[in-house]
Amino acid sequence: MDFLLTDYVLLGLAALLAGLVDAVVGGGGLIQLPALFSVLPQSLPATLFGTNKLAAIWGTAVAARTYAKRLPLDWSIAIPAAVAALLFAFFGARTVSVFPPDILRKALPFVLLAVAVYVYRRKDFGAGPDLEMPIIMSSVRKRTLALLIGGVIGFYDGFFGPGTGSFLIFLFVRVFYLDFLQASAVAKVVNVACNFAALVWFGAAGYVIWQLGLMMAVCNIAGALIGTRLAMWGGTGFVRKLFLVVVGLLIIKTGINAY
Questions:
Q1: Domain locations in the chain?
Q2: Angle at Cα 189 formed by Cα 183 and Cα 193, nearest 5°?
């Protein structure tokens, strides 16, 4: 497949911006995937999804590594959730061929709206564990909940996908009382697992444009490096505000697609 220079430039810029946003609060697919559909309208949707995953996984991995070097991540949450997400994302992808996600598509805008209203009304939500007494959990309970969240969201990511990063951040804040910055960092680890599972699926089926995806991956990595530094500089308050913006855009986009 031949591409014009303008195709590379447009998709490279989209991947850069997607990597930046995704590194902070998730939702990079809001930018990167529509850009692929716009520039390559004749390509199969599965091919564009696969190429998007190839570009996204590298930026997400770099963001996860950067956070891990600069923040004390709770690996007792991150590792079980990532393992469960890796396994269940495969099941989710396979389920699409049997049960099309039409009902979920119509319900998603309302679920996201509930999340946005909850976060907006609770000003201290995700501000830090010192503002709300955290539940003391045993290590077994913590791992069990992490496995449950990783499995459910991993399945959802393979089955449908929009808002995966936002749901992970919300649940890590709500269940484990992490602040928004810590939750975003742990979510990146889980996102890597989800993206890897999907990429293996799409790659094995031949639904990846490798040369284009790798070019976009370089730009996505650059965006992720900028995004993680912005998040570290802006702190929890910045991440919370951007989270609400991205969830708001997701509500609009998923609502338009569903109705």
A1: 5-258
A2: 135
